[in-house]
Amino acid sequence: MTRPSFEHFLAIDWSGAKPARAGAGHKGIALALCGQGKAVPTLLPPPEGRHWTRVGVLDLLTHRLPPRTLVGMDLGIALPFADAGAFFPDLPGSPADARALWAMIDALCAPDADLGATSFVDHPDLAPYFRRHGGREGARFLLPGHGDRRGRMRVTERAQARMGCKPYSNFNLVGAAQVGKSSLTGMRLLHRLTGHLPVWPIDPLPGDGSVVVEIYTTLAAIEAGRSASRAKITDRAALDEALTALGAAPLGTAGPIDDHSADALITAAWLRRAAARQALWHPPELTPELAATEGWTFGAR
Known about the structure:
The protein contains nine helices and seven strands, in the order βββαβααββααβαααα. It is of the alpha/beta class. The mean pLDDT is 94. It has a domain at 8-77 and 191-281. This is DUF429 domain-containing protein.
């Protein structure tokens, strides 16, 4: 299917962290929006407070999203499935596809505020599949013949690795580079977008309108001329170099910037450039079965 024509491009640097207090928001969440052309992306301020909450982002996506927006979310939209034929091998009732996984997470985490996912990873039937803090590595985190010490990987994460990235298993919840917490909390949001926004490739690519895709901000940084080890930017001069390399106007300001904001700005500019590339919507390894279970990272190939 030919990709739709987008008018806006929204990059969301997501966070799975627990807020300092109820309703405080997350300093790790940043949103950047741009339209067509070359104008520099703009950081979107939260509707209230200093930082975005996860439910605040959900409200924007369901009620205040500009028309025909390509939304990129920096998280994993599913867990590994293809390697072992299940998200949770040997678990009775293991979800059959990504949407069933999202529904399961959201139901088990109903008590967790702001789309948290603590109840899911602490569940006695599911905890054995995760590596958690305090040296708590579940007996099912490493499956013989499936992945290495980093844990199980999706097919798209292996594609990321071939491109020079250093992906981590979504079953890993430990370390500064882990994305497991972000992914699980993000899946709660994706479940609640049902009926509002399609999520590619779990949903078919619509012929028109807005769509959500999984992004990996390092892919944008690599295209901007940086290596995976230098993907994080905290200086506005370096940020302007990256934006210029992606065909966007520079911010034109000096001084430090937090890496979450820089990630969002760079990736919004990259989405604007990448959206027109037909090959990115048709990665050769993406089968219908893989699309329904593991999904894919837009830009991985």
